[in-house]
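Typical record is below.
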Amino acid sequence: VLCADSIAVGSLNLFHRFVESILPSRSEVRKMEAEVAGLLKKQVQAAAKWPVGQLCAVGGTARAALKLYNDLTGASGDNTCY
């Protein structure tokens, strides 16, 4: 079974939706965090029905998230495909 979904949680998308000035306020950051957490929770609940072997993501936010994951977990960095 192949399934796909898109989540609009890129940094630019979140910036345009939540930030009123150049830098986000603490309140705006909390709102963005809550938005992302809520969207991810929905995705996890939906994905529980299907076995997930791979996650594919694109864009600058995805690359940054992978780098952060690798740094935090000590992963070698060969867990990418271009």
